[in-house]
Amino acid sequence: MPSDIPGAEQPTTRRPKTTQQFVLDELRRAIERREIAPGEAIRQDALAERLGVSRVPIREALKILEGEGQVLYQPHRGYQVVELSIDDLIEVYHLRRILETEAIRLGVPSLGKADLDELDELRIDIDVAGEVGDVLAMTAANRRFHFLIFDLAEMPRLSRLIRNLWDATDAYRSLYYAGETNRVHIRHEHEQILQAARAKDAERIVQLHDDHRDNAIRTLTAVIEAEASSRE
Hints:
The chain is mainly alpha-helical. 71% of the residues lie in helices and 5% in strands. The longest helix is centred in the last third of the chain and has 30 residues, at 202-231.
């Protein structure tokens, strides 16, 4: 559909999303917002009716999410959002540590001025979203911030594996960003990462990412334990 941009000499055209992409995006948002909580069944009929689509794109989107590890299919029960145990969480973050360390060490030497400027802009986007409590905008900008560095490794399979691991914890990550204390901590971490990126100090960036993951594990472990207790 056309989109007019004030001040542009020529209008730009944005390609409309396919029905499957629209459904996939909506499912991701619902999982991230915990509108569909971990362990909760996904009612395909109700979802299709709410989104105004048939069940076909719903099934296609669910298969993609299953491949990413965000949903689980059980015979006779259908799909449900994956519910992580603490052991699952620790395993995911351990794998992230291994893969992200490699991506950082390979990517940081390629950082250029344009990359650093973009990192700074994303850092500001994260801060602004955090100040108004827009967790979804914060998580989206945060992902772009980190993957800007990871993707500089120019190893698409490595980036894809890291993305899959991030996807697996989306339902819990939004809770981490919801805490005001955590948002303040994240702001300082990103300032330090940007400073280290300007110095092309890969080992400092590796350490900062390690600290960031350790903080997230502690917070998310408490969330998982609290949710388990509430069901007892």
